[in-house]
Amino acid sequence: MDCGVITSKTVLLLLSLTFWAAAAGLSYVGGYVINTYKSYDNFLQDKYALLPAVIIICVAVVMFIIGLIGCCATFRESRVGLGLFLAIILVIFIAEVSAFVLGFVYREKVKTDVQGTMRSVFEKYDGKNPESTVVDYLQEQLRCCGVKNYSDWTTTQWFNSTGNNSVPLSCCRQDVKNCTGRLDQPQELNTRGCAEELQSGLQSVISYAMLVILGFAIVKFFGMLSVCVLTCKREDSGYQPLYSGVFA
User: What radius of gyration do the chain's Cα atoms show?
Assistant: First the structure.
């Protein structure tokens, strides 16, 4: 075997072995994205924004089996096995490119989606209903207050009904004790708006997922090149592999 065949087989074996690690990594990324979106699903009307994460998880499900196929096909140097491995890699490559493109599209769409729904959720705040729980959780986790800033609460029905010139206690800074949420004490409040903070957080998650997808797509591309090199070299040299069996 010449250097090209040895190099190609090494690349394919490493690619096969990394499929299992890839499955774990992609599952983590997909699950993390879904959990992040579920935490703030009341602010996101377009449920298709989860599509990139769903694609990632679907790809991860078949990774272990693909790794076995890749190892067997590479060791046996089977034309059928290598062809099957190439077809599988190609399908995954297309899926990952699709997920990357969708991630890019929905990364920009998050801005308008959040802005369009967050204000209506804040309007439903009464301190008791499910929307109130979501709003309090959002403000505590992101350390924000209101949609654009803390003064947005003055236009809500909840603020007018209480009549105490204060915002929810979830707006209070975590390092301040005995905070009452009164607007005449803004130094005790988180003054940044939640819309910008949520947009930034969701876009960061999507960007992280897109980088992982891009990295795996590049690996798949070199894997496809290695399959082509190994198949062509075998046909040119006419040598017979030592192994025969399942993929022969």
Answer: 26
In this prediction the pTM is 0.57
Enter the tokens of residue 208: 């992280």
User: What does the pLDDT look like over 155-205, one tens digit per residue?
Assistant: 888 888 887 888 899 999 988 888 888 888 888 888 888 888 888 888 888
Query: Which residue reads 């990364």 in tokens?
Result: 107
Q: What is the pLDDT of residues 1-51, one digit of tens each?
A: 567 677 777 778 887 887 778 778 888 888 887 787 776 666 665 556 677
Residue carrying structure tokens 């947009």? 199
Question: Which segments of 124-152 does DSSP mark as H helices, in order?
Answer: 130-142
How many Cβ atoms sit within 10 Å of the Cβ of residue 178? Answer: 6
DSSP-assigned beta bridge partners for residue 149: 192
Tokens at 202, concatenated: 């969701």
Distances, alpha carbon 241 to alpha carbons 74, 84, 184, in Å:
10, 18, 82
Helices (H) and strands (E) in the chain, counts: 7, 0
Quickly list H helices, the chain.
Answer: 3-39, 51-61, 63-76, 79-123, 130-142, 157-162, 194-237
The closest alpha carbon to 89, from 76, 111, 70, belongs to: 70
